[in-house]
Design goal:
Helix content is 23%, strand content 30%. The protein is an alpha+beta fold. α2 packs antiparallel against α3.
Length: 212
Amino acid sequence: MSSRDPGRERGRHPAPRPARRRPAQRLFAAVLPPPSAVAELRTAVAPLHALPGAQDLRWTRPEDWHVTLAFYGDVPDEDVRPELEARLGRAAHRTEPFRLRVHGAGHFGGRALWAGAAGGLDALRLLAERADAAGRRSGVPLAEHRRFTPHLTLARSRTGAELRPFTEALAGFEGRGWEAGELSLVRSELPHSGVPGERPRYAVVRAWALGR
């Protein structure tokens, strides 16, 4: 019985290894506020950090503030993402730019504190519907469609917190208007260090100008 490797015999080569599939990415569609809007909201939020209970909240980074349009979860790169990007591009081109401003505050139970939005909310909701449809038609297994509440998450609580003092402190905030001119596909990278309180990192994967 020969001990030679059949794949190494003259004229023969080992079978090629299958290409490694890139891992799924955790993605969502969003509208990002401009630096000027982030700066004025940051100034308004700063005093909230001195309120009782603020140290128990996980505050989001100002550079990560955004209005989520549709959350896609883990999207297989080769299978779904090209179709998703194509559909998001068409959704952006069909939607004209619109005006927004950060306005007031609210909370989801005791779990999340957020700043609200005002201005062209009809256009924003339409873009959110189109971003949601882009995911569903691309094969992304989205959760049941929920009522869209435009917001920028400012802080979260793992155990539930009394957030009314924070919303009351920010209730009168009225930011200056700005033009929402892009639809962004954003990657969320969950922390792996195990450090308590460490937050996910966000990176824009691709962006499309609205109405062009």
